[in-house]
Specification:
Layout: H1 3-18, E1 24-30, E2 35-43, E3 56-57, E4 60-63, H2 68-84, E5 90-97, H3 105-116, H4 138-148, H5 166-169, H6 171-187, E6 195-199, H7 203-214, E7 218-224, E8 229-232, H8 239-246, H9 250-259, E9 263-265, E10 277-280, E11 299-301, H10 310-318, E12 323-324, H11 326-329, H12 332-342, H13 347-353, H14 355-382, H15 386-399
Parallel strand pairs: 3-5, 4-5, 6-7, 6-10, 10-11, 11-12
Antiparallel strand pairs: 1-2, 2-5, 7-8, 8-9
Helix pairs in contact: 1-15, 2-15, 3-4, 6-7, 6-12, 6-14, 7-8, 8-9, 12-14, 14-15
Amino acid sequence: MSNADFLTELHEQQRAFDALEPEMEVTVRDPSLDVEGYVIVWSTLAVVDGPLGRVGKGGTRITPTVTKDEIGRLARTQTLKNAAAGLATGGAKSGLRADPKAPGFEKQYRRFVSLSWPCHYDNGGPWGGLGYDLGGDPMHCQWAIDQLGTTRCFTGKPVEQGGTDYDAEGIAGLGVATAASTWLKRRADGPKGARACVQGVGAMGAAVCRYFTEQGGEIHCLADPRIDGAWRLHAPLSGALLDAIATMDFVSAREHLKAEGHQQIGMDDVLWEETDVLFPCAVQDVIDTHNQERIQAKVVVEGANNPCTAAARHALHERGLPVVPDFIANPGGAIAASVEMTSAVKDEDNAVSRAKVVEAKETTQRLVTENVGEVLDIAEAHGAALVDAASLLALRRVLGT
C-alpha cells in the first residue's frame, strides 16, 4: 500500500466512523438529590459475534463538572480503545455529575446506580456496568453491589467478589508502561535506564511509576497537586519514596520528597523536562498546539484519556516526536473488565488463586505489546504518524474491514 493509499483508506474509514451516532444515550435525574448522570454506548459493531453480544464497556467518571458531551467523547474514544485491543466489548462510558467528597454523595451515587440499572449488562442491557474513571473509589464498588444485590454490576471489584481489582492492581498503568517499553525496544535501546517524567500520580500515574521501574526504566520527575507540585528527583525513583507513590500514600510521599532533598519545580515544568519518555497521566488536553513546542521528550505515551489534543499529536509528529495515543497505550482497565466479564474462572476459585488478576495482567501485556508493534509497523511502512497508524488499526477493527 502506498502512502497515498494509506491516507485514502484512513480518511474513508474516519468518515465512516464519524458518521456513526451513539447507539444509546441515556440521561437520568433525581432533582430531590441533585442527581444527574449519563450512560452512552457509542458502538458495538465490532462485537456483534462476540461472547457477550452487543455490549459496550467503559468506566464511570464522577466530577462536579462532567457533561453529557464529555461522556460522549470518552465513549467514542473507548470504542476505538476496545476495538484496537480486540476485546469482547464495544465502546461505552458513564458519568455522574457530583462531588465524590461532598456530604451526601453516597445517596447520590446509590440513586444513580439504581436509575441507570436497566442499562446494565447483567440486566440484559447494552452497557457493561459500572467501573473506575476520574473520581472513582473502591468504596463505590461496594455501594453499587449492595444497592443492586449483585457483584456483576461493577468491573474492577476485589478478587473475593470475582474481580481483577484492576484499580488497586494498576493494570491500566501496566499497559501504559508496557507501551513505552515496547516503543523503546523498537526505536531506542530498550527500557533499561530510560528516563521518564510522570504528570499525575493518581491510580494511573502511580501504577506507571511502579511498572515502568520494574521494567528497568527510571522515573526522574513527578508532578501532582497532592504531592505539593512537581519534583525533579536527584536519583531515580526507588525505595520508600517509590513505595509511597505506588500506594498513593501522598502524606508519606511529601515527607520523603522534602526529607530527601529533591528539587521542587513549577507544576507544569514536568511536561517540559528533557527526557526519554513523557507520561501525561492527569487530565485531558494538557498538551495543545500552544505549548507542544516546549515538549523535549523523545516519545509521549498517553496515560490519561486525550491528554494531547488531536492537533497537538500531529504537531508533535511534524517535529519528529511520536505520540503513542491513549487508545493504544491505556486499555488495561478495559482489558481487565473484559476478563471479568468473560473469564470461566469461578468466583470462589478466583478468591484463592487470583487467577483473573494474573490473566488480566498477562493479557494486557500481550495485547499492548502486539498492538504497539503493529502500529509501529504500519507507521514505518507508510511514513505515517503513530496516531494515524493507530487510528487506522482501530478503525479497521471497529468497522470490521
